[in-house]
Predict the structure.
Amino acid sequence: MARAPLLQLNDISLTFGGDPVFKDLSLVVQPGDRVALVGRNGSGKSTLMKVMAGLVEADRGGVIAGPGVSVGYMEQDPDLCGYETLGDFASAKLEMSEMYKVERAGEGLKFHPDRPVATASGGERRRAALARLMAEEPELMLLDEPTNHLDIEAIRWLEEELKATRTAFVIISHDRAFLRELTRATLWIDRGNVKRQEKGFGAFEAWRDQVWEEEDTQRHKLNRKIRSEARWAVEGISARRKRNQGRVRALQELRAQRSSQINRQGAAAMVLEAGPKSGRKVIEAVNITKRFGDKTIVRDFSLKVQRGDRIALVGPNGVGKTTLLNMLIGKDSPDEGAVTLGTNLALALFDQARAQLDGDMTLWDSLTGDPEMRVSGKADQVLVRGNPKHVVGYLKEFLFDEAQARAPVRSLSGGEKARLLLAKIMARESNLLVLDEPTNDLDVETLDLLQELLGQYDGTVILVSHDRDFLDRVAATTIAMEGDGRATVYAGGWSDYLMQRGQDDFASSVTETKKPAVAKDGPRKAGKKGLSFTEKHRLEALPADIERLEAEIAKVEGLLADPELFIREPVKFKKATQALIERQEKLASLEEEWLMLEERAAE
């Protein structure tokens, strides 16, 4: 016997005074559905979820919940007015006998129910809202970016809870690993239309590319047909006017059909350029220790960061990742030990709190008012990597339209704020890029582009992230902050870190009591007796760095193989030649370093 749908949307249309957000949209959520809701930033994902939750009323159409079906919604900015503590808010609809559910969720999500609402951070408020939803156990859960502000332990706890539940859910998330693990169907918002595929997020990108490829083929055929019909009209329409009015009308209909097609929004035209080269040694930390009262953030930690390294900091919330990051870049000082910065450093910082953005400023003023972007005497231009550019034109490169230029920053979505901050960072040249939680709220396409840019960036990258997929794609070295002052260096990204700790699944680390093996005289002795711990991991990372450089050299050599390049594009030829020389020098340096370490390891 077929079960009644939990929720049904029929011919929904919605505008906010401009172009339609949705038009004639229909969808059904069935019992047991586990759905990823995906789409570009600004495509209307959160708006659609609010329509499903009954918080936004559509201009036309209907939203029908099944008989007796309860729908729970976790929004990005929950309203906790009227509640004294986070626990009061999370347990507001529960019976006394069910209070344990909030305490259990509080442990898994890492928030304190007795924390006063007045002093709670935005992340704590979101975790309380998520705990409330999990404890209430509605028939349908609508989760809008539930992993934001969660560390990896809490994300994995949430994964296990959602795997075990019989409740249907729809999830918006930037965390690809989270979506791949949980979803069995995908709703894709694309230019006001919602498409559904009965496969989880893991199959989304192949599906999206296939849809776009088919669109391009159809558009090409339509354009070809229009050109053919238009040629016929030009060559003899006057002689056949009476007999062929139908064909003329058909041509007009073809043109109308092409005009009605909505072009896809392209990828952001982001560019990340390294400035003048830094010295080979970027940062050296020697036996640094930092404490706050009785809490030790890091103890006796040493690290050498070389030019071109890709280093990630991971660990639970509150363990001190940002504190260690600030010490490494010289914003904070250790209590013991020393941090030495290399020469000729040009730092660009993407901060987790988006503190560089003023919510009351317009996007226009946010860029033109930045001292590093200001063009003297030109109120409508910004300095982008040394060249003046019109502020609206630059905003369009990051997928903002002209109407948004004069809108306040606070009106932007989380993903749009992240793109605006990237616009500020990428306007300047740098050779040390520091990214504190850069992936929050960004859509899949922008994340792909950011990853690609980081791979091509001819500088050093240090990042803090809880996004496991992003860590695996970007990081070549991982510093795991494991509490009690322990910070351990591992080669590779997140999956490599788990493998080296002897864990196939991070969930086991939440319950295990056995700590990673630590040598009596410090963090894990090097596997090769002639090397220090840091040198061992440097030796392990070098082959990947060498392979990346060899691939870059092959690419530049392929470009220079064009015999006409010098005559046709002399500036490009000069830049390519210089790039080849620089990469060959760097490759020789890395090979020399590898040989030296390999010889020492054999001693």
